[in-house]
Amino acid sequence: MTNTTHDSAAMRFPARGYAFQKYVDCHNWIAGDWREAASGENAAVVNPRHGWPMGTVAMSGHADVDRAVAAAKEAFPSWRATPYKERAQVLYRMKALMERDVEELTWLLSHENGKTYAEAKGSVLKAIECLEMGCSLPNMIGGPQLDVSRGINCSVTHEPLGVCAGVVPFNFPTMVPMWMLPQALVAGNTFVLKPSEQVPFGAMKLALLLREAGLPDGVVNVVNGARPAVEALVDHPDIKAMGFVGSTRVAKLVYARGSALGKRMLCLGGAKNHLVVVPDADPELTSTTVVASAYACAGQRCMAASVMIAVGDVQPIIDKIAAKAREMTLGTDMGAIINQTAVERITRYIDEAERAGVKVLVDGRGAAVPGNPGYWLGPTILDDVKPGMPAGCEEIFGPVLSIIRVRTLDEAIAIENDNPYGNAAAIFTTSGGTARYAIERFDAGMCGINVGVPVPREPFAFGGWNDSKFGHGDITGEDGFRFWTRPRKVTARWEHNPDATWMS
């Protein structure tokens, strides 16, 4: 293992357009230094729009995780002793730096992930919003205190856990780390972050900006890699809590493994979100919103609309949705798929549905963008899907909208509730009574009324139910802060009192 000599100036990302840009190699960030993986192994980081490698990323294992955790453990006593307000000042400076570099962060995200410029910028701005929540925490988390008896006072403080860890996915490499880092850092923890090996550069830039903001070395460390790095983090005895965002299959495994070791775990999984459209829905609002939900980020997000349940005669709305999907310009209105394996997986779902008799109303298979020989698949609509078909009940994680037709709202609610996920559901209607009836019966943690992506804005917390989340509480907002802390209750008496109570 060797230290590297990357500096901030050399790691500026110069691109301000979609033209391919070669970039640096990404190493681990440990105790304020860039370090190669102990094994010396690296993997290519590929720009999905072009299919060409931008650079490489370190593929780490147990030895690298051990070094990162040791650095975080060494930094913990000093960071814990830093007052809340001073910890938050680092985040205030970080916010200003992210706003200063918003264009660089946006274009870097677009290049490593394949998002359009608008999608990437929205993701960066949402990351800044999450950071703002962390800045505000010292004004929100004052522990309660109360004189509970004569001369007896009880109070609560929120204490850090120690070294914590987070594993984040490829689809939001700047935003999802900000679901974890601000709350964990303000609470006084130190942290080891494991980004997706497919998109490591966003986390690399966050590490540089945190150092520029004045965060002491070792408080945040970044370890890159794949499954061996994740397993090493879960198993490490000095990591007290861990957040994870990814597929349900992996989230369930990670949660079970960490919980069996007595760790505090919060693991977010996948989704099969349902948008229920009834005949009185506004046609223009509904069609525009459904298309935006299904195809933004190329459908590669856990909040994407993957199933539209058409209640009764809503054919005019379906026609509008199909027309808007056909009008989308690939590469401009919708970005690339993360890799060729994902393109092939999504295509198999479409092929299988077609063989089962489903009508491919809009077909994105074989789509391409001239001059961009990367990984593409256009907006797709599958009509008259049956609930038990794979396209109707499995997470596709791509730009595919499955339409299930039913006669009644109760049938639609039953389909939504029958799926194992519970991330998000929405109802499109102009009737307040219909909306309330559906919202009160959906088995989902995040619900929308005429909103296709019902992501709560800060300070409201993000988190689903059922197989979309393993663990207690939500990962953002005040729940997120409480996840990374433990309450200390203090009962105090400073003078003699003749009253006899149970505390005597």
Features:
504 residues; Aldehyde Dehydrogenase, Chain A, domain 1; Aldehyde Dehydrogenase, Chain A, domain 2; seven-stranded mixed sheet; six-stranded mixed sheet; 15 helices; 37% helix; globular; disordered N terminus
What does this protein structure show overall?
Strands 14-15-16-13-12-18-19 form a 7-stranded mixed beta sheet, sandwiched between helices. A 6-stranded mixed beta sheet has the order 9-8-7-10-11-21, sandwiched between helices. 37% of the residues lie in helices and 22% in strands. The model is unreliable at 1-5 (pLDDT under 50). The protein is of the alpha/beta class. It has 2 domains: 28-269 and 468-488, Aldehyde Dehydrogenase, Chain A, domain 1; 273-449, Aldehyde Dehydrogenase, Chain A, domain 2, CATH 3.40.309. The protein has helices at residues 62-81, 84-100, 102-113, 117-136, 177-186, 201-212, 227-235, 248-260, 283-295, 315-327, 340-355, 390-393, 409-418, 432-439, 477-483; strands at 28-30, 33-35, 42-47, 52-58, 145-149, 152-160, 163-167, 190-194, 220-222, 239-245, 264-268, 273-277, 305-311, 359-362, 380-383, 400-406, 421-422, 424-428, 446-449, 465-466, 469-470, 485-493. Helix 2 (84-100) packs antiparallel against helix 4, helix 4 (117-136) packs parallel to helix 5 and helix 5 (177-186) crosses helix 15 (477-483).
